[in-house]
Specification:
CATH topology of the largest domain: Rossmann fold
CATH superfamily of the largest domain: P-loop containing nucleotide triphosphate hydrolases
Largest sheet: 8 strands, mixed
Structural class: alpha/beta
Bound molecules: adenosine-5'-triphosphate, magnesium ion
Number of domains: 2
Number of helices: 16
Radius of gyration: 23 Å
Oligomer: single chain
Amino acid sequence: MAGSILSVRLEIKNEAVRKELEEVISAEEGCRLLRRHDDPDPCDLFILETGDDTGKDFQLIQDVQASGKAKEVFLTSPLLEPELLLQALRAGVKEFFSQPIKGEEVRTGLLKFRERRNLIQQKGTEKKKGKIIHFISSKGGVGTTTIAVNLAVSLCESNGSSSVALIDMNLPFGQIPIFLNTESSFNWGEVLRNISRVDETFLMGVLSRHRSGVYVLPSPASLDDVNVETPEMIEKLLSLMRNLFDFILVDGGQRLDNVSLRILEMSDTVFMVTVLDLPCLTNTKRLLWTFQKLGFPSRETVRIIANRYQKKSSISLKEAEEAVREKIHWLVVDDYQLTMSAINQGKTISEVASGSEVSKSLRELAGTFLSQDQKKRVRT
Ligand SMILES: Nc1ncnc2c1ncn2[C@@H]1O[C@H](COP(=O)(O)OP(=O)(O)OP(=O)(O)O)[C@@H](O)[C@H]1O
Ligand SMILES: [Mg+2]
């Protein structure tokens, strides 16, 4: 199919590097190298090697992207300096190849580019309106990240055709990358810094994909990128993500500031995670009361999840519901050994013990988000 051919243009200074890249790219099925005389033609991918004048190189990257002459830019350089990598990141470069060139890295970069392109093409025809699911903790350590991460994976696994993204809004240091053992080059701090230039293509380039299929946007890992976020920025980010994904799960932790309030306002479902003890239930009640005063999120949007549930707990389910004057929507049983073992290995609960009560419960919860049609497809 002509549309699936990937055109690649090289702007490489070093002959050996050029040869290596040409060899790898020409051997890739569905890739076409554009020769220099084809230069005025737009290409899908532009791969540039930095030279002595990096200022000029970055200007070229900007021009190529702004004029639409290339859909994405990859960079290679004999230098491996943090400053250069940061500059590349800010310029919207999607992959960086260190030298000497490693064929496997280039092939992976091309594969990821194809995946992004396919997803965007698919999204373009579908025009989704993804659902935002926000998680808020009644108190620290109640298991919000555990539930958010594993529900995201369950949503992906329950229905392979659902696209799921997971955003970590915890500050200062979110833990989703640890839970999923993923490495991300980008976090939302950097994305929001560039929000005026961000579009769906840019976003697909900066999100990292976990092996389950979930796309992850972590929290800033350095203090440089915090305090950049405003409610307007986060609104734009979530609106774009809604066009790309069926579900956007936000681990909001205990945040209750202008930014998280905007997310709460935009959310289709808010899961308030608690455990059945007095301090947590008191906070749950306070949060519900706060939402009522604010006028959002609405009562129908908010659902309480009681985590670490034990039948013999000193506060019964009935007493808890009376205390918070709200139904408990979902119970996740107590299994510290399993959840901790998953976290420590960077694995999902279903990877560690797919038949466990916790895993089953989260699969069932994911099932409540599937349409009848999707449920039928999962069963068949
Ligand atoms: N269903 C469960 N049963 C037993 N222990 C659990 C369960 N869910 C989570 N935990 C444990 O609770 C601890 C905290 O989990 P997690 O980090 O997910 O909570 P959190 O609310 O996100 O915490 P933080 O406030 O630090 O962000 C972990 O040790 C985890 O193993
Ligand atoms: Mg957490």
